[in-house]
UniProtKB/TrEMBL annotation, chain A:
Keywords, comma-separated and alphabetical: Cell inner membrane, Cell membrane, Cytochrome c-type biogenesis, Membrane, Transmembrane, Transmembrane helix, Transport
Family under the similarity heading: Belongs to the CcmC/CycZ/HelC family.
Record-annotated membrane-spanning stretches: 20-40, 60-80, 92-114, 126-146, 158-178, 198-220
Membrane-topology descriptor: Multi-pass membrane protein
Record localization: Cell inner membrane; Membrane
Location, primary (coarse class): membrane
Protein purpose: Required for the export of heme to the periplasm for the biogenesis of c-type cytochromes.
Limits of the Cytochrome c assembly protein domain: 4-182
High-level lineage: Bacteria, Pseudomonadati, Pseudomonadota, Alphaproteobacteria, Rhodobacterales
Protein name from the UniProt record: Heme exporter protein C
Automatic annotation (TrEMBL), chain B:
Membrane-topology descriptor: Multi-pass membrane protein
Annotated family: Belongs to the CcmB/CycW/HelB family.
Function of the protein: Required for the export of heme to the periplasm for the biogenesis of c-type cytochromes.
Keywords per UniProt: Cell inner membrane, Cell membrane, Cytochrome c-type biogenesis, Membrane, Transmembrane, Transmembrane helix, Transport
Gene (UniProt): ccmB
Protein name according to UniProt: Heme exporter protein B
Species this chain originates from: Paracoccus benzoatiresistens
Transmembrane segments: 12-37, 43-64, 96-119, 131-150, 157-178, 190-213
Compartment annotation: Cell inner membrane
Length: 241, 218
């Protein structure tokens, strides 16, 4: 029993089909409970009710970065071990990651307008998120531009590797270019810097919910990709016959 | 490798406009900016460094698809791939040829265009150094983008979408260096960062570009 067994599409389809309803239910419960709980917390004494956007902003931003890391890992698995499910998972994850990035940017803008007095500021964090969005768009565009699926997987895999290095490089280069308005880490292990428990626990729940939400969307999309691949194979076989 | 370099340079010159077109584009851009923002020194001077770098970047981008496309069409890229020269080396040489035909003329012309944009003469040494250090990275990254998109029919737009985000760090440190040179500050930090990025790119990106080319030639 090893994780590589799931590289077999049949095994993957069977297991993911069995797990999927539970993941979807978990995502729905965690996200809805977390958001309702979060939105019913008391107003912050300085930020008022705008503080509550954190329950959307932080999980989305967190997932936007984590999804890119997940794509990097699955691309590496594809390039090294040539497991098709891995490449398809990376393909399936990219649009979800792009949407998470957009959610992070929009909720940030909605919060920034009353708090900083501007929708947009060329702050390092905001800028690096915009750059991340550009990388997502380029990655998705390359997937849709290359016709042969294996070449597309190879090329996007290489792009993902190079893009990861440059996304990271840009992230630190923009600090050099402009000092920011954005606060530091929202969650910290040091108790003095942590936000109050009233906000923290619903935030943990929504973060878990967004993680499960991503997982369920990813499973659905990967299953769709596998089915699409099977259909193409069937059609190709029919053409040959 | 030297034979390949000579061949690429000769092709670029004889095909017409290899050296001139990038510079002409650069000149047009620098001539259009004052129409856009107004001719005042106070308006032009703060953005001159940025415009010069952006112009270099775009001029470089325009000629990128020619790095591999022509060789791919007439099949000489396949010959290169099967030749004893490693594909990584061929990619590096082609990027070098691209840099000599577009990057180098831009660097030579940049001080002149800097004067057009009211860039103070004190900033010209840092302008030259930053372009000299930064543009090889632009050519090399561009060769990577060209290698990824070489087999595609509508690769041009996709190429710029893929390559431009990769140019961000170089652009940041390049313009920062000119800005500091303009104000008479210490330029060592951005200079070192710029050189570091270029060195890293020159060392590692040929492998990624060659891998992409192998996929496209399969």
């Amino acid at each position: 029993m090893s994780i590589w067994e799931y590289a077999n599409p049949v095994k993957f389809m069977r297991t993911s089909g069995a797990v999927l309803p539970w993941v979807v239910a978990g995502a729905a419960v965690c996200t809805v409970t977390g958001l309702v709980w979060g939105f019913s917390t008391p107003d912050d004494y300085r930020q008022g009710s705008t503080v509550k956007i954190v329950f959307l902003h932080v999980p989305a931003a967190m997932m936007a970065i984590n999804i890119w890391v997940m794509m990097l890992v699955t691309s590496l698995i594809w390039l090294i071990r040539r497991h098709h499910v891995s490449a398809l998972a990376a393909k399936a994850a990219a649009p979800i990651g792009a949407v998470m990035t957009v959610i992070g940017l929009i909720t940030g803008a909605v919060w920034g307008q009353p708090m900083w007095g501007t929708w947009w500021e060329w702050d390092p964090r905001l800028t690096s998120f915009l750059i991340l969005l550009l990388f997502y768009i380029g990655y998705i565009a390359l997937w849709s531009a290359v016709e042969d699926p294996d070449s597309a997987a190879d090329l996007t895999g290489v792009l993902c590797l190079v893009g990861s290095v440059f996304a990271l490089l840009s992230r630190y280069a923009v600090f050099f270019w402009n000092q920011g308005l954005h606060q530091g880490a929202s969650l910290s292990v040091q108790s003095g810097e942590r936000m109050s428990a009233v906000y923290r626990y619903p935030l943990y729940l929504t973060m878990l919910g967004f993680g499960l939400l991503f997982l369920s969307l990813l499973l659905v999309r990967t299953r769709t990709e596998i089915r699409r691949r099977r259909l193409a194979a069937l059609q190709a076989r029919e053409m040959r016959a | 490798m030297i034979a390949l370099l000579k061949r690429d340079l000769r092709l670029a010159i004889r095909a017409g406009g290899g050296f001139g077109l990038g510079v002409a584009f650069f000149l047009i851009l620098c001539a259009l900016v004052p129409f856009g923002v107004g001719p005042d020194t106070s308006a032009l001077q703060p953005i001159a460094a940025g415009i010069l770098w952006l112009g270099a970047l775009l001029a470089c981008l325009l000629s990128l698809d020619r790095i591999f496309a022509l060789d791919h069409e007439d099949g000489s890229l396949d010959l290169l791939a099967t030749s004893p020269l490693p594909l990584e080396g061929a990619v590096a040489v082609k990027a070098l040829a691209h840099w000599i035909t577009t990057g180098l003329p831009l660097i030579v012309a940049a001080p002149l265009f800097g004067i057009l944009l009211h860039l103070p003469t004190a900033a010209i040494p840092s302008l030259l150094t930053s372009l000299l250090l930064g543009t090889p990275a632009l050519s090399m990254l561009g060769a990577f983008g060209a290698a990824v998109t070489v087999g595609l029919r509508r690769g041009g737009l996709l190429l710029s979408l893929l390559v431009l985000p990769l140019y961000i760090p170089t652009l940041i440190f390049g313009t920062e260096m000119i800005r500091r040179g303009q104000e008479g500050g210490a330029t060592a930090t951005p200079l070192l960062f710029l050189a570091g990025i270029t060195a890293g790119v020159l060392a590692l990106v040929p492998f990624a570009a060659a891998a992409a080319l192998r996929v496209n030639l399969r």
